[in-house]
Model the fold of this input.
Amino acid sequence: MILQDFIALSPILDLGAFCLVTMLAIAFRRNHARIAVCAFLSCLFTLATLPWAATVAPRAVTTLLVVDGHALLYMGLVLSATMVIIALSYRYLNSQFHEKDGVEEYYLLLLLATFGGLVLTTAAHFVSFFLGFELLGLSLCSLIGYLRTRRNPLEAAVKYLLLSITASAFLLFGLALLYFESGAMTFHEVGVSVKQWQTVPALWLGGLILVLVGIALKLGLAPFHMWIPDVYQGAPTPITTYIATVSKAAVMALLLRLATEVGILELPPVVHLFSLLAVVSMVTGNVLALLQENVKRLLAYSSIAHFGYVLVALLAGGPPAAEAVTFYVIVYCAMSLGAFGVVTVYSSEGGEKDRVEDYQGLFWTRPWLAGMLALSLLSLAGIPVTAGFIGKFYAITAGVDAGLWWLVLALIGNSVVSLYYYLRLFVTLFGEVAVQEALPQQETPQRSEFVSWTAVCSLGFVASIILVLGIYPEPLIQLIRESVSNLLMVVAQRP
Done:
């Protein structure tokens, strides 16, 4: 039994061990390329242990963590996205970080944040929930302010720190109220207590709402979105990519487990709260995105709207909702990796390329970058034959089946609005560019063939996912269905 517990936890244990190895490697000898390769291989080897852990899943390891198909699927998503970000970070750091001493700690912090994300995907207890939440948040605070000689990253780090403190305060107070009323600290036991009550105590409901507010702050849902644009713009672009993908995917995995095991979507106040957050997020994100001239801020407001779409799917309830949410999160991570990946690679050529005018005529100077960004934008807009179209269709179908007509109409209407700013940036890529502006960009110093090929391979991998899921999504849908069934079965495996 102990051996099976170790097998189930092998991804988390392995990544924890690799964090120690990376720390020791930095202590003994600093070498940027070597540490970057070490971090990449750490995620790759951890990813390779997922099939081994699946042989004993679903399995509850004590009351703190549970390893099932749902957790393993999100672990794979978190690790894959982190590998892409690591591959894109090397050249970016070489071009942006002029203080060579201390660059290596970036990868250690990235692995620690990923470790926190893995804990969140398996959390089934208030304690593991909070530990994963804090480890992810504290690591990201340091990563956001990593370019410490510049004002914008430091300002973004302070704002994210304040957000993390606020979210943790809401979370802790809410968890305390939940424990006070139910006397339980596992999601399953809390859910059992709720079903035994004829009327839900007001104090318990207030605690649950505080917990959901803490999660909403982390996801950047409106009206708790104030930090999103500034942090996205100020943080180093690879870290912006990480926040938009890994961080939000891990928190959504936790929210899905919480909603399934506690049954919070059966409570009318929670349904009303999520409905309000969904509509406000969609409208706020899309309307404010129309006004942006900064690519990172545009994508930041776009992310707010997209997680409004995710909430619509979540409100459908039951296995179809979990399937739609998981599929949309995976698709959104791929689209964000593609869009922010292009910004990262382009910025690696010197100076942050985050203004819309910086991408004027990019197709004529960097055709492969422009093609990748165009594909990501079309997918974000939900154009057919892309993964984004299937994701939105899945969410709309789940909403229609649940009878959420006004939310579905809001989703469709906001998707139409989003077409404007996505296509505006899309058209910019193919605009005219002056010859004198194009020539200096061709003269890129310190162009490494190895690094260039890593960028091409990483973005090519993301592009293939967007296209394949847009044309033939059935294998992934089947895998998600199995993971959702595991999520419902794990209760019986608890000690």
User: Anything to note?
Assistant: The two ends are 12 Å apart (CA to CA). Residues 2-493 form one domain. Strands lie at 59-61, 65-67.
